[in-house]
Amino acid sequence: MNFHDTHFHLDLMGDPEALVKQIETNKCYTIAVTNSPSVFFYSRSLSLGTKYLRAALGFHPELVSERYYELPKYLELINQTRYIGEIGLDKHRKSAANFNKQLDVFTKIISACRSCGDKIITIHSRKAEKEVLQIIGSNFPGKIILHWYSGPLKLIETALNNGYYFSFNLKMLKSNNGRKILQKLPIDRLLLESDAPFTLSQNQEYHSLLFQEMVFDLARLKKLSVNDIILSLNKNFKKLLK
Length: 242
What we know:
Number of domains: 1
Structural class: alpha/beta
Radius of gyration: 17 Å
Number of strands: 8
Helix content: 40-55%
Oligomer: single chain
Strand content: 15-25%
Strand order of the largest sheet: 4-5-6-7-8
Distance between the termini: 21 Å
CATH topology: TIM Barrel
Number of helices: 11
């Protein structure tokens, strides 16, 4: 079985170079998200010459306050990759204090991506789902992935009508709220993500067994066969890349 991973923090893992080899061996199409423009160069260097790994240009909302000065560099780099993320908004606890600055950064990045067109963007939206949907809108000229969505069920229909995808991980499948969200989402809008290392328990390794467990759990939740789930997820990912 071949899998994909639309949200993986390669640069934060213990041995990134070994994991690149593993990704290539397993033929697991992987988007290596980053948390700031300065990290993008490293992830991109790891992806050079690979078939299954792509580096994404990110600016995590929790880092906006301390790295706001990197925004001009980010906007300079935006034409160097089709893949954007992790970007977004966060109103959870301490992150809410710098929300206006987050709005400024996110709005400018989305505007730049809109001008470029054809970007694949993975988005963080914790406690700020409404604002994220308002800023991106319904006619965005690119592909939007709402990563680890945990927001109100009532906003899901809007996101689906706008053509967005949702990426899910093992933590979502193990939580009551995550399962409620996944039950509401149609299978043709779902994508796999690991969000490693943040979803890994102590001493847990990143490998294909994680994705196998996710597929089996989703099949049980959706009351579909494992084969149907795999076929649908792979079809979604291929459509994402078009």
